[in-house]
Amino acid sequence: MMSNTYRRALLVAATVTLITASARAADEAATYFRQNCMSCHTIGGGRLVGPDLKDVTQRRDKGWLQKFVANPKSYLDGGDPYVAKLKEDARGAVMPNIAGIDEARALALLEMIERESKLPKSQFAGLNIGDQPFTPSDIANGRAIILGEKHLANGGPACVSCHSVDNISILGGGKLAPDLTKVFERMRGRKNLASWLQAPATPTMRPLFANQSMTNDEITQLVAYLETTARKPQQTGDTATLSFFFLGLGGCVLGFIGADTVWRKRLRGVRKPLIEEARRGDR
């Protein structure tokens, strides 16, 4: 027969295994939320594009939420009145079907949201910048981050490598991603933009910042600069293209001048002895 000591050991081992598995599942759910949901939702931080999810399981049945999160498009296409109200509140924005999510993961997310809702402040409450004016230092540092003159603390790439911002530099910026000049307006203010920068959800940016997210200070400084660009009159015409053209033209002129300076001396150095030798032969 099994001894009491052995039984206790098995019970302890089983308990540790369950706790470890539960902690791992919670960490996975939190990581998934941060990478895929945090740009549109907070837990206790107020509405962004989508609703605040604090105590969401008290507002709707968990089974309904589980199915909705796994396949929101089917509910939207089916004319569900609750989903139609969510769309109206979000000014027409709709929750897409998210890659890699099924009902099991949806349930894990909902359970994580329940746990976070009970905390005094959730880790997903978002960054509350406030309405106070930004300092000139914040604005200058934001510009330096975009240009890559100030390196991100966790090693992310400079914004200008993929994005352009009106009048940010003489040659503009990258063309891979959207222009950021009016992104502050497109994101509808500080709170939404800051939350999006905490966890960029686009296919290009998600892997770049998944393990090297920006700090709160860096996000505040970027928001500060992008707020100023949105409020300035936008330049007409493609300034970067014109700058590139004139730089290229100037480079060509300087190249011709340099070539003339170098080769003129070389030609004279060869031609002069030949002329003198020809003159000596004529005598």
Please tell me about this protein's structure:
With about 280 residues, the chain is mostly helical. It folds into two domains: about 110 residues, Cytochrome c-like domain (Cytochrome Bc1 Complex, Chain D, domain 2, Orthogonal Bundle), CATH 1.10.760; about 100 residues, Cytochrome c-like domain (Cytochrome Bc1 Complex, Chain D, domain 2, Orthogonal Bundle), CATH 1.10.760. Helices cover about 60% and strands about 0% of the residues. The chain has twelve helices and no strands. Helix 1 packs across helix 6 and helix 9 crosses helix 11. The longest helix is centred in the C-terminal third of the chain and has 44 residues. It is elongated. The termini are far apart.
Describe the structure concisely for a colleague:
The chain has 283 residues and is mostly helical. The chain has helices spanning 4-36, 56-59, 62-70, 72-77, 81-89, 103-117, 136-147, 183-186, 190-198, 205-209, 216-231, 239-282. The mean pLDDT is 79.
Pick out its properties.
283 residues, Cytochrome Bc1 Complex, Chain D, domain 2, 12 helices, 59% helix
Helical content (DSSP H or I, runs of 4+): 55-70%
CATH C-level label of the largest domain: Mainly Alpha
In total, the number of domains comes to 2
The CATH level-2 architecture of the largest domain is identified as: Orthogonal Bundle
- Sketch the major β-sheet: none
Q: What are the segments in which pLDDT stays under 50 over at least 5 consecutive residues? A: none
